[in-house]
Amino acid sequence: MTAEPLDATDHEILALLREDGRRTLSDIAGRVTLSTAAVKRRIDRLQETGVITGFTVQLDHAKLGWGVEAFAQLRFFGTTNVDEIVQSTTRMPEAQAVFTIAGDPDALVWLRVRDLQHLQRTIDELRRSHRITSTKTLIVLDSWTRGQQWPSAAAP
Q1: What phi, psi does 150 have (nearest 5°)?
Q2: pTM
Q3: Alpha helix positions (H), 7-136
Q4: CA dihedral defined by 102, 82, 122, 72, rounded to 10 degrees?
C-alpha cells in the first residue's frame, strides 16, 4: 500500500494522540475542526498505512522499583555479526532497547535497573559474553522524550 503524504491535520492528530493515546475521537475532532467520522477515517488510514503502529501506556518505572536508567556502549570482536549483537542483550529483562550503530561503539543498550548494585550485576553479565571486548556505562540523570511534558523546575 502506497503511503499518502500527510497533511497538517494528520500531523495535528498524531500530536494529540502522542500526548494522550486514549483521547476520544470527539475531543480530537473538536481540536482539529473535523467531524468525528472524518477523524476516525484519518486514524484508520494512518493505521492501515503503518504510520500508527500501535497504542501503548507510559509507566512510571521508579514507582515500579526500576528507577535507574543507563546506557551501555558495547564493543564486540570484529567478526561478530549484527544478529549476535542483538541476541547478546535481548534475553536480559533489564535491556529496554538495543541500537546497533555504525562506527565505534558497535551497540548502545538502554538499560533499566532497580539500583546501582543491580546495574553493576547487569554490566557484569554483559561482560561475561565472550564476544564483548569492552563496555562503557552512562547513567541517566534526567530525560525528556518528545510528547512528554518537561518536569517542573520547582520540583524537589
Answers
A1: -70, 135
A2: 0.75
A3: 8-19, 25-32, 36-48, 82-90, 116-127
A4: 0
- pLDDT 10s digits, 85-109: 888 888 899 999 999 999 899 999 9
One-letter amino acid identity for 92?
M
Q: SS3 of 79, please? A: coil
Angle formed at CA 56 by CA 52 and CA 58, multiple of 5 degrees: 130
DSSP SS3 for 100:
strand
Tally of CA atoms within 13 A in the half-sphere of 147 that contains its CB: 13
Give backbone dihedrals phi and psi of 106, rounded to 5 degrees, phi first: -80, -30
Q: Which residue, chain included where needed, has cell 500527510?
A: 6
- 31 vs 25: CA distance, rounded Å: 10
Contact status, residue 56 vs residue 17, Cβ threshold 8 Å: no
Compute the distance between CA of residue 106 and CA of residue 76 in angstroms, rounded to an integer: 7
Coil/strand/helix, residue 111: strand
Q: Are 119 and 137 a contacting pair, CB within 8 Å?
A: yes
Distance CA 117, CA 98 (A): 21
Q: What is the pLDDT of residues 45-61, one digit of tens each?
A: 999 999 999 988 888 89
